[in-house]
Amino acid sequence: MIEPGRASQIPHLDNPFNAPVIYFDAVPTIGLRGSVLHAVLAVHVDEPVTSTQASDHVVAVANLHFSLQTAAHSSHVG
């Protein structure tokens, strides 16, 4: 939360509308190696098996790697 009277700490971003959009609805794994967080973003996919049944499985869509400092900073922005 931003304190009253303080400007936002969000930096100016060049070209934000050309950045890829990643849709995910699960984070099946997250871990810490040294001072770097690793998270796998995934999406649930229903695949038809028969005309009345579907098989649900999880597909990874991105691997994120970021520092603890970045994670701490991100929670204070906005």
List keywords for this structure.
78 residues; mainly beta; three-stranded antiparallel β-sheet
Structural description of this entry:
It is a single chain. The protein has one helix at 68-74; strands at 26-33, 36-48, 54-67. By secondary structure, it is mostly beta strands. It has a domain at 22-74. The model has no long low-confidence stretch (mean pLDDT 85).
Protein topology:
Layout: E1 26-33, E2 36-48, E3 54-67, H1 68-74
Antiparallel strand pairs: 1-2, 2-3
Number of helices: 1
**Proportion of helical residues:** under 10%
The biggest sheet amounts to: 3 strands, antiparallel
Strand content: 35-45%
Quaternary status: single chain
Q: Give the overall shape, derived from the CA principal axes.
A: flat
Structural Rg: 18 Å
Strand order of the largest sheet: 1-2-3
pLDDT < 50 stretches: none
Quote the average pLDDT.
Answer: 85
Structure classification: mainly beta
What is the H-and-E element order?
EEEH
Number-wise, the strands total 3
Distance between the termini: 6 Å
